[in-house]
């Protein structure tokens, strides 16, 4: 198997590092979704675990926030599993769900600042990987070369 200096497999036209980035993003989504569900469960079962001041604009009950995190966590984990399976539609869903997760955690910042920032960073990494390297994963999954004579180049 001949490869270019950038790691592109010249026989197939897909970049192994790019496909690895997609797999990494999918795994991050599954793990992040499970953690977000756990965070929601904590908010559901222990109303006093998270505390925030009374003057917060997005102030809701802990139960409401708990259900929001459980639902978003399920969506994120499910989209990650679909992305891991190589579904083409999962790339679009992953970007949308990661964006929703980032927005939810931005609003959740006063309740759990460090974890919210970590989740926002993970969402940004997922969106970058999926939008930058999504076609490589599709080409690899199909087994067909993208261009048999010339490798795809990334500028």
Please report the distance between the alpha carbons of the first and last residues. Answer: 23 Å
Q: How many separate helices?
A: 4
* Main pleated sheet: none
Helix content: 55-70%
The portion of residues forming beta strands comes to: under 5%
Radius of gyration: 19 Å
Q: How many structurally independent domains?
A: 1
Topology order in helix (H) and strand (E) letters:
HHHH
Tally of DSSP β-strands: 0
Please identify the structural class as seen in this structure: mainly alpha
Mind explaining what this structure looks like?
This protein has one domain (about 15-50, about 60-140). It has 4 helices and no strands. The model has no long low-confidence stretch (mean pLDDT about 75). Helix 1 runs antiparallel to helix 2 and helix 2 (about 60-85) runs antiparallel to helix 3 (about 90-105). The protein is mainly α and about 160 residues long. It has helices at about 15-45, 60-85, 90-105, 115-140.
């Amino acid at each position: 198997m001949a490869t270019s200096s950038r790691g592109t497999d010249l026989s197939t036209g897909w970049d192994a590092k790019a496909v690895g980035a997609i797999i990494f993003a999918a795994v991050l989504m599954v793990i992040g979704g499970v953690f977000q569900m756990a965070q929601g469960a904590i908010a559901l079962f222990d109303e006093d675990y998270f505390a925030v001041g009374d003057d917060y604009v997005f102030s809701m009950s802990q139960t409401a926030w708990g259900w929001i995190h459980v639902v978003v966590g399920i969506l994120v984990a499910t989209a990650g599993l679909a992305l891991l399976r190589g579904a083409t539609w999962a790339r679009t869903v992953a970007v949308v769900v990661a964006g929703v997760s980032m927005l939810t955690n931005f609003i959740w910042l006063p309740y759990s600042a460090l974890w919210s920032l970590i989740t926002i960073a993970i969402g940004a990494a997922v969106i970058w990987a999926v939008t930058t390297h999504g076609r490589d994963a599709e080409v690899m999954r199909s087994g067909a070369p993208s261009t048999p004579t010339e490798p795809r180049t990334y500028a």
